[in-house]
Specification:
Distance between the termini: 20 Å
Largest sheet: 4 strands, parallel
Radius of gyration: 15 Å
CATH class: Alpha Beta
Order of helices and strands: EHEHHEHEHHH
CATH topology: Rossmann fold
Strand content: 5-15%
Number of domains: 1
Length: 185
């Protein structure tokens, strides 16, 4: 059986999505889930994570020092079982690359809010089916709206405190999602 493939997306792939990548990998590993977690952004590739992101994750014993940004592309989108974005507007870029991927793409906060409505995934229910149910729970027409209420604030250019706050928020939202998608029996 192949690993669960999670893609985390933000704008520059220098703070939010790299932090989400290592936090999600840690959470999934702690649940015993074989997972490939990657991150990407809508901007250019090859830029290191911000110093504050590296330091914020280092305080959590996670390493972003070797991270280099990766620009979102069709192959990365196609390979993902689940795509979690930091902002709703990132869904537009995903739709431009592969409109079919929208069904498995969510702003992180949105999926954390939908997860209790969908309920915990039970043995025998494939991951893809749980994700499909979560997608079907969204209000019709809400996917590609300009609504920013579900966005995770971008700490880029902010203080170390802003980064810690964003990391705490991302970790809390990921904890909710993983606890419903991969419940511990």
């Amino acid at each position: 059986m192949r690993p669960f493939r999670l893609l985390c997306v933000c704008t520059a792939n220098r703070c939010r999505s790299p932090m989400a990548e290592v936090l999600a990998a840690q959470l999934l590993s702690a649940r015993g889930i074989d997972a490939d977690v990657v991150s990407a952004g809508v901007l250019e590739s090859g830029v290191p994570a911000t110093l504050h992101a590296v330091r914020t994750m280092r305080r959590r014993d996670l390493d972003l020092s070797a991270h280099r940004s990766h620009q979102l592309d069709a192959d990365t989108v196609a390979a993902a079982d689940l795509i979690l974005t930091m902002e709703r507007r990132h869904l537009t870029t995903i739709a431009d690359l592969d409109v079919r991927a929208i069904e498995r793409s969510f702003p992180l906060r949105e999926l954390a809010e939908l997860a209790p409505m969908v309920g915990a995934r039970h043995d025998g229910v494939p991951v893809q089916e749980w994700i499909r149910r979560a997608s079907a729970t969204r209000p019709h027409g809400s996917v590609l709206t300009a609504n920013t209420q579900l966005d995770v604030a971008d700490p880029m250019g902010g203080t170390s405190r802003a980064y810690r706050k964003t990391a705490d928020e991302i970790e809390g939202l990921l904890t909710t999602v993983t606890s419903y998608l991969f419940p511990i029996p």
